[in-house]
């Protein structure tokens, strides 16, 4: 068995999304300060992190888009772990919009469909926020109708950010299909024959949250 990490590490000061604050990572109790509470030679560090939920590689639950939808804590582990998965490679297609025909050769039913655009190569660079690839409304409807269990992408947003209706989020999350954005490392995966997992902590009242996304190859 081989595990492949598909997540960006969360670091102090990094930006994931335009206009949203970067995470603040610091000590709550430093090792030096902790020495006052323990025996000689014993110390601990307790960290603190302040962040918005859309930080790093994160998962969208239906509550992100719909008030009545399931939040992060309500998603069953069966929707998030050990999902049979496929990769759809759309590198070098010459356009930003990824339409339904890109998925025609894929067996999506019951699968996590991971869209490999190679946009993650721009992570932590200004280019990451400009002209990113995205799915079309027709692509989202096709994946919903084909029975995809989860859809992920290694790009800034699965929707065109110029479209305020956010049709891909709307279609997939209304159907109860979680979305994972800002993946990385998809070039390391085969097209089929692996499972995908992306598990956030069960925080109530949150529609999105960072995940440790990974693939398991047998």
What would you say about this model in short?
The protein is built from three helices and 13 strands. It is mainly beta. It is globular and about 65 Å long.
What descriptive keywords fit this protein?
mainly beta, single chain, 218 residues, globular, two-stranded antiparallel sheet, Glucose Oxidase, domain 1, nine-stranded mixed β-sheet
DSSP E strands, number: 13
Structural class: mainly beta
Low-confidence stretches: none
Radius of gyration (Å): 19 Å
Q: Write the CATH fold name.
A: Glucose Oxidase, domain 1
The end-to-end distance, rounded to whole angstroms, is 5 Å
Largest sheet: 9 strands, mixed
Outline: globular
CATH architecture designation: 3-Layer(bba) Sandwich
Instruction: Provide the domain count.
Output: 1
Provide the succession of SSEs. EEHEEEEEEHEHEEEE
Average residue-wise pLDDT:
97
Please explain how this structure is put together.
With 218 residues, the chain is mainly β. The protein has a single domain (2-10, 52-217), classed as Putative cyclase (Glucose Oxidase, domain 1), CATH 3.50.30. 10% of the residues lie in helices and 26% in strands. It is built from three helices and 13 strands; from the N terminus they run ββαββββββαβαββββ. The chain has helices at residues 31-34, 137-146, 167-174, and strands spanning 2-5, 24-29, 46-50, 58-60, 83-89, 97-98, 112-116, 134-135, 150-153, 179-181, 194-199, 208-210, 212-217. It has a nine-stranded mixed beta sheet, covered by helices on one side. Helix 2 (137-146) packs parallel to helix 3. It is globular and about 65 Å long.
């Amino acid at each position: 068995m081989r595990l492949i990490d598909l997540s960006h590490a969360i670091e102090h000061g990094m930006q994931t999304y335009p206009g949203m604050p970067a995470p603040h990572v610091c000590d709550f109790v430093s090792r030096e300060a902790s020495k006052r509470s323990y025996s000689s030679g014993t110390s601990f560090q307790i960290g603190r992190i302040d962040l918005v939920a859309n930080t790093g590689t994160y998962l969208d639950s239906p509550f992100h888009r719909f008030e009545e939808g399931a939040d992060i804590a309500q998603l069953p582990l069966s929707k998030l772990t050990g999902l049979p998965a496929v990769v759809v490679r759309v590198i070098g297609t010459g356009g930003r919009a990824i339409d339904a025909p890109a998925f025609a050769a894929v067996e999506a039913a019951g699968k996590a469909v991971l869209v490999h655009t190679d946009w993650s190569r721009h992570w932590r660079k200004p280019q990451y926020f400009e002209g990113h690839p995205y799915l079309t409304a027709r692509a989202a409807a096709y994946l919903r109708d084909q029975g995809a269990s989860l859809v992920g992408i290694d790009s800034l947003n699965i929707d065109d950010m110029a479209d305020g209706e956010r049709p891909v989020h709307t279609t997939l999350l209304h159907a109860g299909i979680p979305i994972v954005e800002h993946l990385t490392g998809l070039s390391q995966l085969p097209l089929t024959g692996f499972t995908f997992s992306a598990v956030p902590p069960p925080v109530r009242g949150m529609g999105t949250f960072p995940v440790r996304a990974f693939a398991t190859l047998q």
